[in-house]
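User: Fold this, then the next.

Assistant: Folding the first:
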Amino acid sequence: MDRSVQVWSSPGTMGFIKGRVALYAILRAMGIGAGDEVVVPGFTCVIVAAAIKYTGARPVYYDINPLSLQGDPDLAALAITERTRAVLIQHNYGTPAPFGHLGPICSAKGISIIEDCAHAMGASVGGQPVGLMGDAAFASLQWSKPTTTGLGGIARINRPDLTLKLEQVVGEDFSEPSVIKSIYLGVLSAAYRAWYRPSWYWSAQSVYRWAGKKGLIQGSSSIGELESKTMPIGYRETFGSVRSKSLKMALSDLPRVLGHRRNIHSLYRKYLKNEIAWLPPEEDSDVCGAALRFPMLVENRSELLNAARRSRIEIGDWFNAPLHPAGCPPEVFDYEAGMCPIAEAASSRVINLPTHQHTSPDVAQKTVEFVKVHGEFSKGIEWASQV
């Protein structure tokens, strides 16, 4: 079995309704609660901070490296206090994030390391898959992730004592989704795989968000989840036995999916090399990313995205705020303006290009040509010098 599959399907893993729920379960298994702190990068989705808040703990944010858009491990180390119980390492856009000296620092202080592999299932460093480098990890199987079951997530535990605690937490406080909900999610996932096309991106996004707000479909996030530190009803659910076959199928298909994504990612780099000031750093020889998205920085993001909508070109905007999506009340999740200035500057500039199975080489070339025409790029070698 491919190691990128094995790490998420071997003993020590457990499926949940969403990746964020897997994180919440991991935090509970670690005994994290009121009065504790979890150090997390300030360039993430608000649902990560929400999962921390649901335990009663407090997220403490650290900034990103301007050249990689990954969390800066040195800044994470500086954010550690006597209340810190865990540090979260997040692999943005499918590229493994550096640990720096966090391993020995956290080990000496009895602090757990949790990997956020939502963007990076299948990525590796020196042949070691992400998900095996900390005490625990979680991944997402939501629509936009490396491989999908529609909605879903996985917790990965690398310490035997935590495995037993996770099983206890789930057994006492979690339930399976109903059969009807499981079948419904399976139908949505099958429809997405069969019918989605990049030219439908903007229309599909608008309809999906509208229907989710109205409760007509199972959205990725509820309004309450994005705006309140109170846990939504029905949050604590496992993946469910009804859809267990779909989970196995998605994981078995991961190597093929990664091959396609990496090919499209390399085409973007080929088409854009020497064209713009900032590109994702080229991977070292021992790093193999999951190529979930190809991030870029532009000075006219709003105008570019509006033009993309009109032209039916798929371009993403995450993370469009230090706590994505923009418009969520950051103070509810303990984030204040100025905490992570590089992340704040990046989130006003970053876009990302698709690599999913419906992105053909022709679509990739058309997308690049569009960005070249409509994008305004920083002139400096290091965009962060403008911050």
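Now the next one, as you asked:
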Amino acid sequence: MMTLFSRSIFICTSLVSQKPPPDQVVSLTWNYDFWRSESRQLQKLTWYRDYRIQSADLLAKALAIVVVWW
């Protein structure tokens, strides 16, 4: 119930308010160019310092815990 209430507030607020200028939003929005440049930076790191690999590992461990204890 609270999720639906929050969602309706977010939708109404976004419909009523003005759209922000693109230069304000560009740093907060995901795009493929950012993904590529970040991938090049992450290639310089060792595999265990890459946050993407750490995230996938954490997700796999959490899933394993759920499967074992279910």
